[in-house]
Amino acid sequence: MSNAVSTSSFPQRLKEATARLHQELEDLQIPQSILKPGVTREDYLKYMDLMHDVIREVETTVFPLLSSEIEDLEKRHKTKLIELDFMQLGYAKPCCTPVFKNLAMNISTAFALGVLYVIEGSSLGGRVIYKHIHKQLGYDKDSGAAYFSGYGEETGLLWKNFMTTLVTYEKYNANPDEIIAGANYTFQAIKNHFEGGIKP
Q1: Does the pLDDT at position 198 exceed 90?
Q2: What pLDDT digit, counting tens, does each position of 77-123 carry?
Q3: Is 99 in a helix, a strand, or coil?
Q4: What does DSSP assign to residue 28?
Q5: 55: Cα separation from own chain's centroid
Q6: CATH assignment of 10-197, among 2.60.120.260, 3.40.50.300, 1.20.910.10, 3.60.20.30
Q7: Distance between CA atoms of 101 and 115, rounded to whole angstroms?
Q8: Contact 171, 6 (CB under 8 A)
Q9: Where are the alpha helices (H) located in 62-108, listed in sequence order?
């Protein structure tokens, strides 16, 4: 019984511990702009440009640290989806901008899982954004919204699989604070990146 309580309580603790920064990120101008009824192509591309920096850097820096922990990690690569969207929309992205200051290759597995918690969680919200963008701009997974289409019908299953891995890792390694630190670091870094992406 005690194991069941422990297993179910950590996701809630993680969610509560990251709630403030998560909400602050969602409340920023650029994330809000792609959910408004009058979203424009420019709003959409500004968001996608910034997210490309985020996803690319996570896949380059963090994914290699988790190759032995996440069995289906190869399915979770999304940089190529954003780049496909850019190609479909005729957008030439400028040079990439660093997002994660001091994110060294020697971060712990727990911290890396916290980073991936944020990235994988965004796939759930992405399904809502996909429907909105399709309705407002007409884009679909083959014409500029492949990134938000993401895992398609597998989105829920892949999230469940990731959370099972995360909870199991925490259970056997007892390092919840480090996972939470990785998640909060990621929310803060993305928030800073998006705030810097607002041009006068």
Answers
A1: no
A2: 999 999 999 999 999 998 888 999 877 667 999 999 999 999 999 99
A3: coil
A4: S
A5: 7
A6: 1.20.910.10
A7: 13
A8: yes
A9: 79-89
